Structure formats: C-alpha cells, structure tokens
C-alpha cells in the first residue's frame, strides 16, 4: 500500500492529487495525519504542499470537470471525515476521465461518498446560519462561539459579512480554535490569541433575557414535542444557544 | 408596563399564527445598513413545540374591538392586554437581529380602535425600522382588513411579505363565528395586494430599479377544525387562492380550543393529523402538478387518516401503474408514492449514464418501502407476483406504520419542517410534505 501524507490544508490535498499524476507512484490512500497502526508493507510518502501545483489542479478541476465538482471537493474536504481524502482523490481521477458528467454517476462509491460528505457540510453550514448566537460583550464586540461538527467557519462567515456589516464581530470555532474576525472592513480567518479564548462570558445583556422570554412564550403548550425539536435542532448544538441555557 | 411583560403577552398572543417563513425575498443590504434577506429562508431556533422560529413574531397590540369566537384576543375574553410603541418594536427587532436570533420581524395586530388606526401603527413601526435604522432584514406584516388601500400600499413598499388571514374557510363559518367580519373586507385587500404585486413585476421588467412591492409575496392562513368544512372545501379554496390571487403560501392551523363557546366543536386536542394531511396535499398542488379534484371528490370529501394523499391517489388509480423507472418522465415519477422531488431528480440524472436496477435506487437513497409497489426496473417487478389494489393498500398502511415505529403522527407538526421550495435541507424531506 502506498500512503500519501499531507499537511491537512486544501492546497496540500490538491498537491497530493498533482503528485499522483506526475510524482513517483500513485497512492492507494491519502491521509492527513500519520496513522499509528500501519502495516510494515505500507509505503509512506510525505507530500510537500506547493501552492503552484495546487492551483494547477484547482484550475484543471474547474476547466476539465466542472465548478460543481470543485465545490463538492472543497466541501467534502471540510468534512474531515475518515478516508474522505482518498475518496476525493478517486472522485477526481474518475472526474478527469468522465468530465462534467462525473456527478451523474450517483451509484459509484467515490461519487456517492464525496456527495454525501459535501452535503453534510452544506447542511450544517445552512443550519449554523440560523443557530449561531452572538453575545454582546461589554466592549460592544459581538462574539459568537460555536463548535460545529465540520470545519465550516470559512463557509459561513461570508453570510455574516454581508448581513452584519456595521458591527465588529468574531465567529469562534472552539473545537478547532479557528476564528473569523470582522472589523467592518474585511474578514480574516485566524487562530485566536490565548487570552481571548478563555474570556468569561458574563454579559448582563438584557436582550438575552428578552430572547429567552420570547422563546418560552412563543411555544404552544398543547403541542409540546421535544422529539421534533431535537430532530430539527440536534442537542449537540444547544451548548451555545442562549435560549437553551 | 415593562418591556419584558409586553413581549410575553404579545408574543403569546401571536403564537397561533403559524406562518414563520422568511423566504422568497432577497433584499440586499445597503451601505451602512443592517441586514439582508436570503431567498431560501433560515430557521433560527425551534421552540419546545418543535415549530421553527425564524422571525420575531408579535402582535403590536392585543386590545381588540372584535369578538371572533375562535380567537384568544376576542374582546369578551378575559386576558392580560398590552400594546407596544413603534420604538419598542424597532428596538427589539434590531437587537435580536444583531445577535442572530432572528431573520426579521413578523408584525401583526388585533384591531385597536379601528382598522386604519391599527394599520397606521404598523406602518410607523416598519417605517422606523427601514428608514431610521436602515434595517434590511425580512419583514412580514399583516394587512388589516378594512384599512385604507393607500395605507396598505405604503406599507407594502417597505415589507417583504404581506398577508391577510382568511381564517375561516367558508362564508357560513364566518357568519357563525365572526359575524362582525365580512368576506368582502378580507378579499378586497388580498385582491389589491396581488394586483399591486403583478403591476410591480411588470415595472421591474422595464425599469430595473423600480421600487419593490412585497417581493416575498402574499400568504394567508386557514383554521382547520373550527368549522364543519370538509378537507375538499379547504383544498379547493387553497387551489383557487394559488391560481387567482397568486398566493405564495396558504398555511393551515389546527384549531386549538381556546373557548367553550357552544358554536365551536368540543375538541380535546387540536386536529394535527388533519392539518398534516392538508399540508401534504397542499404540497402536491404546488410542486407535484396535482389538482384538488384528483385528490378528493364528493364521495370522499376528507383525507384518509391512514394513508397520505399521494399514496391514496395512487391506490385509487392503480391502472396507471407500474411505471418503468428508466423511462417514466419526471411528472410521472413524482406521482409514485415514496418518490419525492429529490429522488425523482436523482433518478433522471443517474439514468442518463446507466440503466437502473433496484439496487441502484437504494444507492441513490430512494426509499423503496412504498415505491416498490408502483414501479418496475428494467421491466422487473420488485415482487414476483401481481398485487391487488386492496392488498397494496393494506401493505402501505401496515407496512409503513409499523416499520417506521409508528411515528406518532398525532404529535408531529410538519409545518416547521417544510421549506418554501423543495430544495435545501434535503435530509428533512423524507418526513415533510414530500411524499
Ligand atoms: S379581529 Fe383578529 S384579533 Fe380581534 S378577535 Fe378577531 S381574529 Fe382575534
């Protein structure tokens, strides 16, 4: 078995695809981090991320397959699911053969896996556009901590740049410690400095109380249905929901 | 009165209005402004009853001069009363919006003093939001029947959606339960709004920058189970509303017993299953090319509680089946029980490159539990014997209900799950109106 290891960046993944065509040996698997129980028969190759090679692959996907394929690949990559990098690789190989019709092969495993991973990411992104909660800190900054299953911060921040364009805000993925910081001019993706990570969130924001009140009184008590509520709004997201505190 | 108390009273009073959708408009943010609307709509939370919360849904006031029997706010009812000021409405909306609690505002009101006075207050709240606060989020407002059309027009220029609630599906019901209201007073503003919307659509074709008028369309709500009307009357009414008034949505609200009035039925619980069937049928009208006449007739004027409207139709029209999955056109695929918009689209795509067998359908995620009775793949049946109409019916009822561990239909409000267009949120589809 030939395993490629790359640094976990999207560029790194695309570089791996590049090397599979022009490098020494095509891989059986592409992985983000060294897996510990590898067999002695495995051959490991470390991929050095090269943004030039990556952008060649990027262009090639766009031109030779389709823009949709590019989107699918990027979204699937953000899912960080097990084995997904290998499926992405197979999907692209298949795609370079079939061109833009690749997405019609809905019964092929690699197409199925990439589509389903991408869909999971898009579904969560859409859900988060609604479930993200900004806390107004005493300095006037709006701070939104959350902990998504997939790495979606880059995907959702654009929406808030358009929407909340006249306020300072930070969207913070506490699981990955990744933040989108917006200063009313531009939005950047960055790690958050240590001291900000543990800021206490004791705000005495009266609108949080008003929101909780509203949340309670809008419910029709004859129709209480916790199952339906959980199906729509899985409990794993409740931690950061003001109304569920 | 404290703001908190007012919010409590006036949101509780608004909660029976089921519309919550924030879709259909894509108003852009302006420079230095706050907010925008996304055409697919976004849910921000789900209340303990499982319904989606997308908008701040409040009454401006619940002081009412009318006395409609089915309504909590009727003047003869002894409930706490309150009224906001336009400033308070704007403050709540802006501050909730900045924290991403809501997509915008849904403002309605009881009739305080008279229709015009009430409409003026609604207009002023919205003007404040749009003009002073530069708020570009979603606004849905209720047009008060009987208010000046000029006032309704001015309001329509500022909002994304407008609605007039019909509430009672027949004139007879109206006479009985809301004798102070007249059918004409309700239909007049609806008619006016729909003609204005049409007018603006033409204008926009000519002048790109023509001002907006209710870009998210018009909707209404019907109460189910407060009168003796059959499902057929209700569905026909909806069909007409979609055709004649170009409505975006008709909402159905299972009547929640709020009064002991002898004119009203004595219900223990709201008729949720009936509401659910109507939503399913409504969905069939809007997205599946069905007409009301196909689904119900004089002999069967009400939906079968045991079988969803599409399966019911298919069983009654069994001579049209089976359909061959590899050849049937999109419209026919949509008519197969168990195949929804998403599955039909996938089948159409996948069969372009490969002739499909039952295994392939499973891979596509098509649920065969019901569909298998109605389709063939490459000429083959799923079963190797011919099924009788009655047998299929039994299988659909028993098989389906037990397999899915009896989904407690009585408790499910499907409304909150139904997106405006059958696109996003794919995974929710299997339990929504898509059947
Ligand atoms: S006019 Fe509206 S608020 Fe007033 S009682 Fe009738 S339905 Fe209720």
Automatic annotation (TrEMBL), chain A:
InterPro entries: DNA_repair_put, DUF4130
Classification via Pfam families: DUF4130
Boundaries of every DUF4130 domain copy: 83-243
Organism domain of life: Bacteria
Protein's name in the database: DNA metabolism protein
Species, as recorded: Acetivibrio mesophilus
TrEMBL record, chain B:
InterPro entries given in the database record: Aldolase_TIM, DNA_rSAM_put, Endo/Exo/Phosphatase_dom_1, rSAM, rSAM_sf, RuvA_2-like
Keywords recorded for this protein, A-Z: Iron, Iron-sulfur, Metal-binding, S-adenosyl-L-methionine
Keyword Iron belongs to the record: yes
GO MF term (any one): iron-sulfur cluster binding
Superkingdom classification of source: Bacteria
Protein name in UniProt: Putative DNA modification/repair radical SAM protein
Taxonomic source organism: Acetivibrio mesophilus
